[in-house]
Amino acid sequence: MDVSYQEVSVDFNSKLRAEMASRAGKTSVPQIWFGEEHIGGCDDLHELHAAGNLFKALN
């Protein structure tokens, strides 16, 4: 599957990390969004895939 994505590193940028935490409600990384929809972290993405809903969420 060919999906374009943008990686935003918050490792050394405290402003971006604070914005991520504010928007996601979590401080762990990665936090994953599809557009403006917050998916969650890596485990949440795997659960979405295991439930068969990943492709639907991408569209």
UniProtKB/TrEMBL annotation:
Pfam families: Glutaredoxin. Residues 2-39 form the Glutaredoxin domain. InterPro entries: Glutaredoxin, Glutaredoxin_subgr, Thioredoxin-like_sf. This is Glutaredoxin.
